């Protein structure tokens, strides 16, 4: 979530300074609130929102809930998190469907805000939920707007109603009204109307949008706003609220590199909930907006719930069980590995998924350096293998590896590294599947956590740990010493083992504590 990157860094740094203090004074709280105010203003959050937000944080931070807390710094973070959730809308709101279909959803916003792309994304998401949406091309002013919506509808696999060619030709109000009637006849349960935008707010735009709303009486009017628009977002939102009114907000281009304060301002200023967030260019990159999860991301607390939901959508449960069985029976192959990578790609950007993990804001450089194309390169190498080579990588000799490298456009070193990583990963997964503990490269086995009853290789071979001296007399003496004083076994943390205390030791301990 690049849009809130700078704000997240500033807030995280502010809270990091708090964690060194055991108790917070009034000056500590004032300094923290001052830094939060600066961070929000630098992120283009509207001034009224900043004033209200910081006043509430300061009041609560100076209250008893922080003074009596075991960890005041964590309590302040919790307060900021709760207040962020509040200005982002509080609770998530979903689309409200009409009791008698079709449900009419009208889109409004400035030109270039992403209305047409969002129409396709919403249609695709609704289709996945079992609905039959109809896209209505009522943007007849912008050049090639009808053509763009037609292409987007085709990509989403949705039906489109576009009786007019656009480019200034046709009556958008009549098209919107006819589109709803067409949906009713063809039994589409949802209608998504894409309306015209302008480069700026003007009377003509507002009148046309208001006329369409009056003609079709939509169940939802979604205001699509570019998260990169900056301070002007508040003025634009107010103008649309006064001229057309809307029931919900859609944030587009959240994957951009803008400061993103508009997103924190719109819900608070207009009183309308943010319902969707567009996080990428693909039609799949649309998320329901959860204020609590977005606040967690901003504060670098992670968003595990969204990550789990995306994984559940991308991974097939039956396939996962099949893979688990293969791991347990040691039949996991490169073909299975390829299938798992393809399912992983369905989840979207790896950078975005990793960014949802708690604390990943502190590893921003590592995330930036992560190359998304590495998965494609790995896939190319595996696809250049024959089915037999994928099932049994041990047959890969030098000539085969050269052929695979040439076929995938990679080097023999790349092929060797892939095979080596796969063998290590397969070995680790097999160990885990059998209930053991993997030997992580560079760390060694984790002692004390192995599978019960498992024996080491040294134990299997039955090798003696006695003296190896070539002098028989010396060897006998050393072995006798080892038998009298066996070496400690050690603990899982590499510490020497301790003998059980004798009765004399216990008596001495009791004397130290004054007990008889």
UniProtKB/TrEMBL annotation:
Concerning its family, UniProt says:
Belongs to the GTP-binding SRP family. SRP54 subfamily.
Protein's job: Involved in targeting and insertion of nascent membrane proteins into the cytoplasmic membrane. Binds to the hydrophobic signal sequence of the ribosome-nascent chain (RNC) as it emerges from the ribosomes. The SRP-RNC complex is then targeted to the cytoplasmic membrane where it interacts with the SRP receptor FtsY.
> Per its UniProt record, what PANTHER family does this chain match?
SIGNAL RECOGNITION PARTICLE 54K PROTEIN SRP54, SIGNAL RECOGNITION PARTICLE SUBUNIT SRP54
Residues that bind GTP, according to the entry?
109-116, 194-198, 252-255
Q: EC number(s) per UniProt?
A: 3.6.5.4
- List the InterPro entries hit by this protein, alphabetically: AAA+_ATPase, P-loop_NTPase, Signal_recog_part_SRP54_M_sf, Signal_recog_particl_SRP54_hlx, Signal_recog_particle_SRP54_M, SRP, SRP54, SRP54_GTPase_dom
Q: Name one GO molecular function term.
A: GTPase activity
Q: What are the BP-aspect GO terms?
A: SRP-dependent cotranslational protein targeting to membrane
Primary localization: cytoplasm
Q: What is this protein called?
A: Signal recognition particle protein
Q: What class of enzyme is it?
A: hydrolase
- This chain's source organism reads Microbacterium azadirachtae
Query: Looking at the UniProt record for this protein, which Gene Ontology cellular component terms does it annotate, in alphabetical order?
Result: signal recognition particle
HAMAP family (UniProt xref) = SRP54
* Cell compartments where the protein resides: Cytoplasm
**NCBIfam families to which the protein is assigned, alphabetical:** ffh (TIGR00959)
